[in-house]
Write the structure tokens for this entry.
Amino acid sequence: MEKYKDIGLKLTPQRLAILNYLDGNKEHPSAEDIYRALLKRFPTMSFATVYNTLETLRQRGGLIELTIDPDKKRFDPNTEPHHHLICVKCKRIVDIHGDYKLPIPNGERAGFEIIGNHIEFYGICPKCKKANSL
Ligand code: ZN
Ligand code: MN
């Protein structure tokens, strides 16, 4: 929660619940996931509240938006550079913390100074692999 303190959001109980849900969350939830998880506690909360809170957090650097699931945007509270493993069956996303040195040939660099990268590895997670072999 520490990192959200300086983000300058007025902390309503609903927003606080969203922040709590995100804090340390490694599941890469979508706005829908968060909305559904909190609906029981906040039956009057609108989806727009969840979405707008996530969008504000993203704009202020408290969240990363992942576009690797074509069905829905996923959010990552871990803003440290890292990579992802994606299950093509259940869309589970798992962090990879490795430093991959990927040299880009000079001719391909288009004059860019490279400041980072994000690698997406695709595969089938153990759960889906097991379900498949039954
Ligand atoms: Zn899977
Ligand atoms: Mn991640």
Observations:
- The chain has a mean pLDDT of 91.
- The longest helix spans residues 47-59.
